[in-house]
Amino acid sequence: MTGNAAALATLLAEEVPAVDRVDFVLVRLPFVSPFAISTAVWTAKEALLVRLESGGIAGWGECVSDPDPYYAYETNGTARHVLKDFLLPLLAPGIALGELEKRMRHVRGHEMARATLENAVIDLIAKKKGLPLHALLGAPRKKIPSGISIGIQESPAALLAAVEEAVAKKYHRVKMKIQKGKDLEYVGAVRGMFPALPLMVDANGDYRLEDAAHLAKLDAFGLMMIEQPLSYFDFYEHALLQKSLKTPLCLDESIHSLGDAAAAIALGGCRILNLKQGRVGGLLESMRILDHAAARGVPVWSGGMDETGIGRAVNIHLQTLPGFTLPGDTSETSRYFHEDLVDPPVVLDADGFIDVPAGPGFGARVVEERLARHTLSEERIL
Ligand code: OSB
Ligand code: MG
């Protein structure tokens, strides 16, 4: 077996520990500056955390949903409901992780909620074994490349200032958000100043197939890819659009599972995948998608959901696995937050690489005073 298949089989056979306490913690961390995409502007990260306790050890899962349904249909509210009423009751001591995953699949959709529980259980398993997450996932420790996602800016000048800062930090690639009316001029400004920068754009579904001729003008800028130009619900029109573009298309919010990834690739709806573990139901499905894409020569990178240090660490561990071939949306903690929930913060080294946090499980330490300071509400489930 190559890729992640052997590690996945081992992981599926791991036993789910007996959980003696379950808590939901809803947190809110103000952003350093507002983050704007074509469909939303966020001024803070509001995230639902699940904490599972087993014999004095805590496993954490961070749900990647937002408070609103502007990126995905799931929200922190739906995730809380689905976790509490449908997913947590499926936990049973001694069942295999693969059995838990099978049981969770009885719930249709709600991949972000499913990933949250799976993340918490896997973190707990790793901590009980004293293993860092990457080791439990079967990969050796290594530094991962960095990438930054720059939100839609007020003016090309403001965008240039943000890109300049990212380049000075040695980010390995820059993604800029675009929308109708803030595209060609903005991309042109960045390209003019940084002709060789690995650069890509993300439209979060702002365009229609009728915009194909307009989008083809982006071909002139030598972009690595165009992410999610069309609807969050589509592969088919992306396949039609790809035929009229030189620049590769990448899908993000259209992909919720291995089945979606396989269909999108087979149809020609994308040539590159943005893999967000929280959007596809977790780490196990991510390993299958990595192998599927690698077997077809499709490049994969890890997206992000501006996670707190908990989810950010999970994304970093995941990127040590074979199959990630491009820098992802993994940036420094300080790019989003004045203060994070965990220590140490994510930082770039002098060459723009990111180290995997060293402790067991996701590796970083939750700082209780900071967690308390940023908690909106808490709910003990068990
Ligand atoms: O489309 O990739 C996206 C953040 C929230 C919702 C959607 C997206 C993003 C990002 C930021 O681009 C990625 C990150 O820095 O974590
Ligand atoms: Mg995206």
Provide keyphrases for this structure.
alpha/beta; 15 strands; 382 residues; binds 2-succinylbenzoate; TIM Barrel; 20% strand
The secondary structure category is: alpha/beta
Total DSSP helices: 13
CATH class of the largest domain: Alpha Beta
Following the backbone from N to C, one meets helices and strands in this order, namely HEEEHHHHEEHEHEHEHEHEHEHEEEHE
Predict the CATH topology of the largest domain: TIM Barrel
CATH architecture classification name of the largest domain: Alpha-Beta Barrel
Proportion of strand residues: 15-25%
Mean pLDDT: 98
The CATH superfamily label of the largest domain reads Enolase-like C-terminal domain
Output the radius of gyration: 20 Å
What is shown here, in short?
With 382 residues, the protein is of the alpha/beta class. It folds into 2 domains: 5-134 and 368-380, Enolase-like, N-terminal domain (Enolase-like, domain 1, 2-Layer Sandwich), CATH 3.30.390; 144-361, Enolase-like C-terminal domain (TIM Barrel, Alpha-Beta Barrel), CATH 3.20.20.120.
What does this structure look like?
It is a single chain. α7 links the parallel β6 (174-177) and β7 (199-202). The chain is 33% helix and 20% strand. It has 13 helices and 15 strands. The protein has two domains: 5-134 and 368-380, Enolase-like, domain 1; 144-361, TIM Barrel. α1 packs antiparallel against α11. The chain has a seven-stranded parallel sheet, with helices on one face. Strands 3-2-1-15 form a four-stranded antiparallel sheet. A two-stranded antiparallel ribbon has the order 4-13. It has helices at 5-12, 76-87, 97-104, 111-129, 133-136, 156-169, 184-193, 212-216, 236-243, 258-267, 283-295, 309-318, 368-373; strands spanning 21-37, 40-54, 57-62, 144-145, 148-150, 174-177, 199-202, 226-227, 249-251, 272-275, 300-302, 342-343, 353-354, 365-366, 375-380. The model has no long low-confidence stretch (mean pLDDT 98). With 382 residues, it is α/β, with parallel strands linked by helices. 51% of the residues are buried. The chain binds 2-succinylbenzoate and magnesium ion (MG). Magnesium ion binds next to loops.
